[in-house]
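Exercise (ungraded).
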Amino acid sequence: MIPRYSRPDMVSIWSPESKFRIWYEIEAHACDAQAAIGVIPAENAAAVWKAKDVPFDVARIDEIEAVTKHDVIAFLTHLAEIIGQDTARFVHQGMTSSDVLDTTFNVQLVRASDLLLSGMDRVLAALKTRAYEHKDTVRIGRSHGIHAEPTTMGLTFARFYAEMDRNKNRLEKAKWEIATGAISGAVGTFANIDPSVEEHVCEQMGLRAEPISNQVIPRDRHAMFFATLGVIASSIENIATEIRHMQRTEVLEAEEFFSPGQKGSSAMPHKRNPVLTENLTGLARLVRMSVTPALENVTLWHERDISHSSVERTIGPDTTITLDFALHRLAGVIEKLVIYPENMLANMNKFRGLVMSQRVLLALTQAGVNREDSYRLVQRNAMKVWEQGADFKTELLADPEVTAALSVEEIEEKFDLGYHTKHVDTIFARVFGESA
Amino acid sequence: MIPRYSRPDMVSIWSPESKFRIWYEIEAHACDAQAAIGVIPAENAAAVWKAKDVPFDVARIDEIEAVTKHDVIAFLTHLAEIIGQDTARFVHQGMTSSDVLDTTFNVQLVRASDLLLSGMDRVLAALKTRAYEHKDTVRIGRSHGIHAEPTTMGLTFARFYAEMDRNKNRLEKAKWEIATGAISGAVGTFANIDPSVEEHVCEQMGLRAEPISNQVIPRDRHAMFFATLGVIASSIENIATEIRHMQRTEVLEAEEFFSPGQKGSSAMPHKRNPVLTENLTGLARLVRMSVTPALENVTLWHERDISHSSVERTIGPDTTITLDFALHRLAGVIEKLVIYPENMLANMNKFRGLVMSQRVLLALTQAGVNREDSYRLVQRNAMKVWEQGADFKTELLADPEVTAALSVEEIEEKFDLGYHTKHVDTIFARVFGESA
Amino acid sequence: MIPRYSRPDMVSIWSPESKFRIWYEIEAHACDAQAAIGVIPAENAAAVWKAKDVPFDVARIDEIEAVTKHDVIAFLTHLAEIIGQDTARFVHQGMTSSDVLDTTFNVQLVRASDLLLSGMDRVLAALKTRAYEHKDTVRIGRSHGIHAEPTTMGLTFARFYAEMDRNKNRLEKAKWEIATGAISGAVGTFANIDPSVEEHVCEQMGLRAEPISNQVIPRDRHAMFFATLGVIASSIENIATEIRHMQRTEVLEAEEFFSPGQKGSSAMPHKRNPVLTENLTGLARLVRMSVTPALENVTLWHERDISHSSVERTIGPDTTITLDFALHRLAGVIEKLVIYPENMLANMNKFRGLVMSQRVLLALTQAGVNREDSYRLVQRNAMKVWEQGADFKTELLADPEVTAALSVEEIEEKFDLGYHTKHVDTIFARVFGESA
Amino acid sequence: MIPRYSRPDMVSIWSPESKFRIWYEIEAHACDAQAAIGVIPAENAAAVWKAKDVPFDVARIDEIEAVTKHDVIAFLTHLAEIIGQDTARFVHQGMTSSDVLDTTFNVQLVRASDLLLSGMDRVLAALKTRAYEHKDTVRIGRSHGIHAEPTTMGLTFARFYAEMDRNKNRLEKAKWEIATGAISGAVGTFANIDPSVEEHVCEQMGLRAEPISNQVIPRDRHAMFFATLGVIASSIENIATEIRHMQRTEVLEAEEFFSPGQKGSSAMPHKRNPVLTENLTGLARLVRMSVTPALENVTLWHERDISHSSVERTIGPDTTITLDFALHRLAGVIEKLVIYPENMLANMNKFRGLVMSQRVLLALTQAGVNREDSYRLVQRNAMKVWEQGADFKTELLADPEVTAALSVEEIEEKFDLGYHTKHVDTIFARVFGESA
């Protein structure tokens, strides 16, 4: 985790304070459940809640851990200092450290998911706003980086909206995947604790009880979670790449917002670099790099080994923090992206009318000109555009062989942009689920 | 794709014959839709179906492609040879090659998913059968490869069942992800073809119309698909690793089935290698290796570039074929796995009764012995087991300090396996959704 | 492996014929070594060479394998049919299958490396030729996709040359890494065969004896090999991306060669897609995807398990075949790349002279104008270029405040391209090791 | 980077203090070089060195950066506060930020490499010591986890030594790969600075001048560097896995050192978990996960984009810190690994003598018994061992058909462990380059 690529809300989910608070809640709820089935006295269970609003002293816990060499014991020792030894001895009964640690990790992932979902909402809102704003802003569609047929800037935003909306659905599923907890003992048999404790704690913590666990929650869940984050990151790179392309000096159809006061902006007006989207490209790689180790983590020896732990200590916070930051950076870029419709038109007309050559070719054929002749006619006029910078429509209108086959109106019609935008509303309705 | 790691059913989905048949169906359904809106004559649309039961000549298509350098044109030329030029000229009108190619790829992925789902069903059935068979077969649970507490072999199978069942749900979602088609033209604007054609074709081919496409279907869908296959593969490795561990000479709690006639089986009865599960470990890596390029494929330049294509030509068939083979190999291994319950017991008792030392320690404490003394009592008897191979329970029963605190019955109870298996039925009910 | 992305020379290295020929040579050389130390009769060792020029019948070997279920035994059985049973019984004595299989794999990787090296030589030659050809072809250097300072096209080629030359050195090292063989027995102790046999065979096969093996050659060697191929692939993508950028409609500084006869070339002269370099981008991903499984293959249980085998059966041929094809495709693209120097100049002058604004700013400062004033002077003239399409130099020369600080000659000098190209020869000398 | 998985020496290489000190040295050496060619006054160049022993105030630099939004300018401003404005204005002349930043990154990677190399030396020393210590400690070699033939523990250590020694050579090469610097300007043309400055600075910083750069040093170098770290990490996992296997309860041939005072050690003597090697398995994944983004970083747009930067800010420190920690953790594990030779013997004899069955089979054949009979003889005795726990040699000696073919001495000889260890010295001489 790098401070410059992080937001405080997400960082705080992974703080020691948050972690200990979750530990505490799990232990306290477990005591309630233990009391309910008569394993521990009800008054002691109730007394555990005395620490509800008492902040834990992280430094003190660290101090104890330096002696005990065991994080959960250190925490319980500190808890005892707050709630008293008489009550503390009923805490954690029949539980193993993993019950607490693993359930906590999933609580954190769920909370991280909620933040990520809200980041995605911001991205979606920005994309939708810009899509409607530029629904009819015509620009050239490009396949292979080469001009193909006209489209609109709104369709580009709408396409990204649909992609991010799919990602949001995926993340909701991924959140659901890891929203389970386990309090099932050293090998998952509930030998030392009743399954009702697990059920109560999970319900209170907003989780489902893991149907079958083995000291740890099975890691296919986490693999799916991080794989999903990897897909989201790839979509971020996809959008970032579009913007980087649009900002190229030769294209200049859009620019990342550059505040007027920014030094150098007007002495070198051409040198505004798309550094935010370039950065997003790199951040996408950082998010994606967690996918492979998360997949490798699925295989554990027998009832569990701890090989996955160091991986998760890293990718748990780092990946969610980076993705959270990236989502908000992306939203900011989209919200403020400066669009240049006039440059879009200028680019489309770089080879004056040539992008319409295929429509003309088709029209000639449909008008009864044979394939070879149609091709020859288009070609001789197209080459004048390509080599001499002529205007395609003008040339066609001046070519008697062409006008013999097509009327002026027919030729004009082939250059009508409305032909290409006639279904934009239909597509918008599909994407945004509204009549446009 | 390696023949030895493939099954014919899956291979045939990716054959040229299958591919051309899908192309044909897409074109024919598109003609129907075009006829319905009056773009082409109904009789010609009907006539396209003349090729319905005529096998395509792949060699002939290849021959034409060698000349035209274009696969779709080669196919259409061959189709014309079957349905006649008069009808053929109405085929593919207003469509681009990608409309056909991309929709076909998704049809193939959907069909591949169906085969994979049936492979998963076989794995699930095998796991469930073996789980119930060994529901009460006690064996030692191991954390870190080290004996922890007793569990049952049935719980191990049930755990894998739950994991595979999650994977099946994931695959159903992944199949849904790629079950879309697009017939939207060169940049996705439907400039040359009505959206109703896309809707009709998709419905007929068992797909949903892609809400917004851009010559190609967006690649986040495929990324999610292959990422899901990667998770499934990781679970296969997880199960394979368990079996490899069980078959180790020193453990020998299970063996892959070894047919009695297999050479060498009885001259070297100790040398039966878990080669199928080792192979599954490698196959898992092969499936997983498609995840990263699938993620990298998400980013395309503007309305599309073709960088994703070579990747998909490879990972489309290879990954589904390998996973399909792996699922069936895994199912076979589980179905026939030879389990040795007696070895499980012998292993559990390797350090005679020592795995119960923690229960005894707890019992002493609960009986009022202070922590230091409890620890000292357990330790002195445990060390006799560890160093001299004594029996733990026998030693405890002979230790007056122990028997002063715990009755014989209480000591005996600590060695009762039923303590550990008492919730097996509960867990089975959770996993298999039935009263056990 | 996909036929369309493969060259016959590399494919043949991985053919069954090649494999069996290598198996044979290993066995025959091993017999020589066994005879030299008196383990088998010299005349029998000599007689093994009778098969030297006899082609093996792959179908026959497959037929035998279908019965014996063991590939090496099937081969030896077929060999016996050629050299006679009396001699055949001395073949393979004291050896294990892995001795043959693993050494063969490395022989194949070495031969594949030689082909790859020759592919790299072709790429290097093409890059060097084009570098010298365009040593002085000025174009704008771009950082962040935005115009920065002038450079030359030759420097771009030279930069790629230096990168590929590093890759060649890496591949030579990688080839050296896997140029070892092992004939050391079931666990690598030479219990059943003398180390001198390994030494002789390796020497004859162009390998070094693996200092310590364990049935198999350690897989860190192969991991390093495939990791190196992954780096080379990434450089291919780097070069391919540059060309894709150059061919963009708005940039058009270069185009992949498009044969004049190619259909459509002149009716749609603007629509020439950089499909070869897009394809190379995808192929790079395919090569890279072998890196992770190759790294995962390093860990084998104890003296060996066979998890690595299925991975290598796939990535051995597939990765080398794909990279070989990619290198030659890249070489072809570079050799025939059509460069448009006039478009390079036009692009550089898109914002007429504006890329020189920083030099002017510096010159003003050095001429004693204070920082704020310098900035203001540059800015007001730059904005005329940016907003009104004026020419920067013309504006500066017409600005009395500027000309008060800088003479006409000084201003002219700031627009001299020679300032930027003065060290091109120095750089060429560094890269190509020659006085330019 | 996680504090618990880091060592201070490596962390300090990546501290702000270290970074600023390197920036300073680069700037100061650049001034010397600029003075040497008369670009700046010699006395000012000399005056820059006034800051040589003055610690930089990181907080102060951060404070300035909060205003200037530019890290290098912030540093130069702080430097001016130390060396005075008159001298400071000569610093950084003609340079771009990347000249400083990129060269610094490589200085840090070189220093990190040196630390890693010394970690590897510690691992190598430990492996060598343990190899000689257990050169003749016999244990069973296992293929597929199944007993194969005897080997020695020393050979296992020697094998790991050879692997790590290869890794050390690879790391030396990788260090060499990134030991270059660049001071070549905004697009690498040296337009604003003489190449001699780059040469002088690089020489002083222990680097080579990058022959051709383009604002940044080409990223294939870094890709190769991180790929190499990935291979080393995989070898660490390989060794860790061997130890985890050895410590399994059923195998117990070795244990990670467990200090006598460690709580619980003797009350649960069976429960000593190989947590350090499990942790190393996870750390290996963390190191490896940098390989793919490092490969993706190779492709930069034109003369550079900044997509690689965020990746490197993370993987630069994190990967080297994790690997450094892992190497020392591994060294510690090996140095103190508790080996149980008696358990090795016991394991080997688990199926009493059965691992020798293949030698007996071969001996019978060589003694003239035909293949079927030999097989039958071995089989019937082997099955007594397998099924009834008999001793193989005893059974063979009591089987008249066997003793008719083989003398007692011949039978005894087949069970001689010396047969398997006779080439251990030869192998040690190969690995350690010494007469054993």
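Further reading is listed at the end of the chapter. For now, observe: The first helix of chain D runs from residue 8 to 13. Chain D touches chain A at residues 2, 5, 244, 263, 273, 275, 278-279, 281-283, 285-286, 288-290, 292-293, 296-297, 301, 305-311, 313-314, 318 (CB under 8 Å).
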